[in-house]
Design a protein that fits this description.
Layout (H helix, E strand, L loop, with lengths): L3 H11 L4 H14 L27 H10 L3 H12 L12 H12 L1 H9 L19 H7 L5 H11 L2 H7 L4 H14 L6 H14 L2
C-alpha cells in the first residue's frame, strides 16, 4: 500500500528546483560542511539566509545552470555533497559535473570497491588503527595517500568504532581534526548496511589467513 507520506517523499525527490532554491540549498550545505555545528539533516536544509540575498550575488548564473541541468532536488543535493567533500570551503569555481559523475559511479559500485580497497589491508587488520610514536595510523595514511576512500573510513568506523580512540590520541593533530569533521559531516548523507559490510569484511579477513 502506498501511503500519503511515501507519495509526499516521492514528490519532494522529483520536484524541480528554481535557481534561488538551489542557492539556498548550497548555503545550507556550505554551513553543514563548514566549521560550525549546523546539521543539514537535522534542520532539513533550513537556514536564516534571506532569499533576497540571491540577487546580490554575481555568480547567480552558476545556480541557474545547476537548476537547469539536474532534474530534481535529490540530484542537486547529491551534486553539492559530491563537490563539498572535494572542496570543503564551497568555492564553486572548483565544483564540477565530473566530481558528481565520479561520485555517482563510485556509489553505485561501492560494495565491490570496499572489497578492493580492504583486500590488501586485512592481513594485519588490527594494525590499521594503532596510533603510536606521534604518527598517523596506517588506515589514515592509506586515505591520505588516496588508496582508501572516505566511504571506507566511515564504514570501518561503523564496524570497529576507532574514532574516539583516534580523537584522544590525536587531539592536537590538525590533519585528523579536519578529516574527522569531513568524515562526520559526510556520514550524515550516507545509508550504510552495516551488517552487509561486516560479513564481507570478516570473509576477507578469514580468506587472508
Amino acid at each position: 500500500m502506498v501511503t500519503k507520506r511515501t507519495l509526499d517523499i516521492k514528490k519532494t525527490l522529483e520536484k524541480k528546483m528554481e535557481p534561488i532554491d538551489v542557492y539556498l540549498m548550497y548555503c545550507a550545505l556550505k554551513a553543514h560542511f563548514g566549521k560550525g555545528d549546523y546539521d543539514y539533516v537535522t534542520y532539513e536544509g533550513k537556514t536564516k539566509i534571506k532569499r533576497e540575498s540571491f540577487y546580490k550575488r554575481k555568480d547567480r548564473g552558476f545556480f541557474v545552470r545547476v537548476a537547469r541541468k539536474y532534474k530534481n532536488e535529490n540530484d542537486i543535493k547529491n551534486y553539492f555533497v559530491s563537490n563539498f567533500i572535494k572542496t570543503k570551503n564551497g568555492y564553486i569555481a572548483n565544483f564540477s559535473d565530473e566530481n558528481y559523475e565520479s561520485w555517482t559511479l563510485k556509489r553505485q559500485g561501492f560494495f565491490d570497491l570496499f572489497e578492493v580497497e580492504m583486500k590488501p589491508l586485512v592481513e594485519a587488520f588490527e594494525n590499521l588503527f594503532i596510533v603510536e610514536g606521534g604518527q598517523h595510523p596506517k588506515l589514515m595514511r592509506e586515505f591520505l595517500g588516496s588508496r582508501v576512500s572516505l566511504e571506507t573510513l566511515i564504514i570501518l568506523d561503523k564496524l570497529v568504532e576507532y574514532d574516539d580512540n583516534w580523537n584522544k590520541s590525536m587531539d592536537d593533530d590538525i590533519v585528523w581534526k579536519d578529516l574527522r569533521e569531513l568524515k562526520n559531516n559526510y556520514e550524515r548523507f550516507l545509508t550504510i548496511d552495516v551488517e552487509k559490510y561486516r560479513i564481507r569484511l570478516l570473509k576477507l579477513i578469514e580468506e587472508s589467513k
